[in-house]
Structures are given as C-alpha cells and as structure tokens.
Amino acid sequence: MRRDTRPDRADSPRLDTPRDTRRHLVRRPAYDSDTFGTFAEQFARFMGTAQFLLWMTGFVVIWVVWNALTPTGWHFDGYPFIFLTLMLSLQASYAAPLILLAQNRQEARDRVVAEQDRQADARAHADMEFLSREVASLRMGLGEVATRDFVRSELRALLAELEEQWAERDEDDEPDGEADGDRSRPVRPPKAPAPRRRP
C-alpha cells in the first residue's frame, strides 16, 4: 500500500481564511526605526559640538562646587561624587550605541551613494565607448567623401583639359576656314571664371 508523504491539506494554511494570530501576554513596544535613527543621528551630531562640551562642563563644575563648598546639610552627593560618576557612566553607556547607530546609518547611505556612483560611472563608460566607436566610423566614412578642395582641383583640371581641346580644335579648323569662306567656324565657349575660395 502506497503511503502519502504529502503534507495534509488541513494543516497547510488556506488563502481564503485569515491566519490565527497569537496574542502575547506582554505586548512588544512598537517604534519607528527611521524616526529613532533620525533621533540618534541628531543626538550624535549634537554630542560632537562645542556647545555640548560647554554645557557638560558647566553641569559637572556646578555639581562639584555645590557638593564641595556648600554647607554639609545641603550636600546631596558626597566627596567621592558617586552619583555624578553613575550619571556620567549611564550617559556614556547610552551615547555609545546611539553614536554607533548613527554611524551605521551613515555607512548605509554611503554604500547606496557609492553604488549609484558606480552605476553612473559604468553608464558613462559605456556611453563613451559608444561615442568613440561612432566617431571612428564617421572618420572612416569621411575618408571616402570628396572634400571641397578635391572637387575644385578636379574641376580646374577638367577646365584646363577642355581649354586645351578647344585650342587644338581651333588650330585644326583655321586652314579650312580660310579655304572655305562660307563654312561656319565653331564657336568657343566663354571661359568660366575661376571659383572664388571661401574664407
């Protein structure tokens, strides 16, 4: 007897029925990671300013002066300043992760910008290769095209050849024209002016 190894259809979730969500006894805190990251960046940026150092120095000086120079009954933190040390260590323990979070976000942004720059460089390189191939093909095509100077030189050579032929024909027709007065003499075409060279 063949055994069915496929999962039971009753165990697989159906698309037309909602999933059974489990409710936790303790609700997890929900927070927006983008908002928290923005706060971390602003906090890290503020901690790197001279204003924060001045405020922190003033706070510590006032704390120490109050607990050292005021009467004994007014002291809320004795000479070893244990409470002040605890506050500063607590502030440092929170500041370090916030600074690291801000650095991680900046690193992620730098990675995205670097990837975009790499793609833009690749596109620019491909465009430059395409343009260089097009310029090379245009140069090869222009090598076979007659230039203006070449056409002028060919026309001058052709005009000189025609003038020589007409001169030879005039020399050949002069004796016949004297003998036969009624024979018409071939008319020589007017000399074409030389083409002006453009500046």
Q: Biggest β-sheet: count, sense, barrel?
A: none
- Low-pLDDT parts are none
Q: Termini distance?
A: 102 Å
Helix content: 55-70%
By secondary-structure content and strand pairing, the structural class works out as: mainly alpha
Supply Rg: 49 Å
Find the count of extended strands (DSSP E, 2+ residues): 0
Q: Name the average pLDDT.
A: 79
Strand content: under 5%
Describe the oligomeric state of these chains in a short phrase: single chain
Describe this structure in words.
It is a single chain. Helices cover 65% and strands 0% of the residues. The longest helix is centred in the middle third of the chain and has 62 residues, at 82-143. It is elongated, with a radius of gyration of 49 Å. The protein has 199 residues and is an all-alpha fold. Helix 1 crosses helix 3. The model has no long low-confidence stretch (mean pLDDT 79). It starts with 32 loop residues before the first helix and ends in a 20-residue tail after the last helix.
